[in-house]
Design a protein that fits this description.
Blueprint (H helix, E strand, L loop, with lengths): L2 E3 L13 E2 L2 E3 L14 H9 L3 H15 L3 E2 L5 H8 L8 H15 L1 E8 L7 E5 L4 E3 L5 E4 L12 E4 L3 E4 L5 E8 L17 H19 L6 E6 L5 H15 L6 E6 L8 E4 L5 H18 L17 H35 L7 E2 L14 H7 L15 H4 L9
Amino acid sequence: MDKIINYSTVCGAADDPYAHTSATVVSDRDFWRWGSDNRLPSTLAALSRRSTAHRRIINDKADYISGKGVAFDREVPLLGAFVERVNGDNESLRRVINKIAFDKSLFGNAFLEVVTNADHSFLSLYHQDASRCRVARDSQHVLLHHDWDNFSISEAVSLPLYPLFEPQDDGTLRSIIHYKDYEPLFEHYGVPPYIAGMNVSTITYKTDRWNISRLDNSFQPSGMMIVDEAVDNEQDANRLVRYAESRFAGNPGQVLFIVKDGSEKDNSRFIPITSQNDGDWKQLHDQATSDIVVAHSWFRSLSGLDYSSGFNSERILHEYEIALNTVILGEQSEILEPIVQVISRTLGIDASSLTIINRPPTRSKPIYMKVWEARKADGLEYDPEDERQQAYLSEITKYNVTKVG
């Protein structure tokens, strides 16, 4: 049976931007399962640890989305102090955004806890591991638990979904922001963008594992060993097979042992099993890797998949420009929007100047490029009409200017 805890004191005035509700402790059946068995986050996390290309793309997307830092209006010192330290763990805003971007890239969901008090005298932001979070049945709370395989309601923490806030035992007001990627038919949780590429991610993992098995068994060729040995009973035959396997099978061991009745002439022999499908396996692995990149809506050159064919800085900059305008800026806007709103409402300062600083993976630019074009390529503010930005890079490099902006 659900237990309702009523708080007699409602913090804040009637026009307070934060809505307050009673803290609700829900039963173990009052949350929406994440996946058919409630273990989808664990599956996605395990897959990301096994597929090299898949994991590289997730890491790179998170790094590009979180950028190189957060720019802000220097005339608002309180905002600058907050950007440098957003919680009691001494984490910067950029660090927290990086964790959110990683979870969104991996799970299609991310959770950010907001902590303040009735006087709005402070504000803290904490990233919460998405795999620990589940949406409550009332769709207004999120349950946090350390082990969903052994769920206990007494160990769970319930936080209201932003913009609702609820008072806690420590006197703070807390809420949690739920970021999720939209997907039709999925209301309570988002779906990662690579959902169509989960099978090909598994393929790359299995082809890598196959290569490892071949390496482990390199000195023990696969085949069939026929042992011509007289045995009196089945137990002696099994004992002989186990002995042969321990001596010659190797690890993981791909030798089939057959014991047959001995004859006057020893006919023991080894029949190797050769495989001619190495090329097929390589093509399968390469095709799966390409499909992973497509499923992530990402680019090969931004994930180091084409370095073997040469470092093409022009292609990298070109694909970075496309990624910036199709993926990165949109994700940054989605992450920053509620953060800017929370800062403005809680601290009473204008946080609209918060901007994630973007830098391309390479700073190599042709000398015939103008300054404003270089700033545009770096994701910085630019003005084609500014006379100072009309100069060509070739004109300023002679003064040992190595950084524009």
